[in-house]
Amino acid sequence: MTVRAIYEAAKIESAASPYDTLNLKIFYPACLPDDERSRNLGIVPADDKNAPFPVVIFFNGINCSPEVYQ
């Protein structure tokens, strides 16, 4: 199985800085088509044959920084 990741950041309007930014790293099973769009732009669609996909959310805890989950 090929796995790809999307990195995104989102602003939380009701939170004060520096706690107003949410950083996301979304992993998904990818289908690697042999076409120009995926080769040149890196746009790889999800492999939906096993959909719906489970969702797992990791939060850092006590004595564990977010970098540990890399």
What is the typical, i.e. mean, pLDDT? 83
How much of the polypeptide forms β-strand, as a percent range? 25-35%
Secondary-structure content class: mainly beta
Largest sheet: 2 strands, antiparallel
Strand line-up in the sheet with most strands:
1-2
Distance between the termini: 19 Å
Give a count of the beta strands, DSSP E runs of length 2 or more.
Answer: 2
Task: State the helical fraction.
Answer: under 10%
Segments where pLDDT lies below 50 for 5+ residues?
Answer: none
Question: What is the overall shape?
Answer: elongated
Compute the number of helices: 1
Instruction: Output the radius of gyration.
Output: 16 Å
Order of helices and strands: EEH
Structure overview:
With 70 residues, the chain is mainly beta. It has a domain at 1-47. The protein is 9% helix and 29% strand. The chain contains 1 helix and 2 strands; from the N terminus they run E-E-H. The longest helix has 6 residues, at 36-41. The protein is elongated, with a radius of gyration of 16 Å. It starts with a strand and ends in a 29-residue tail after the last helix.
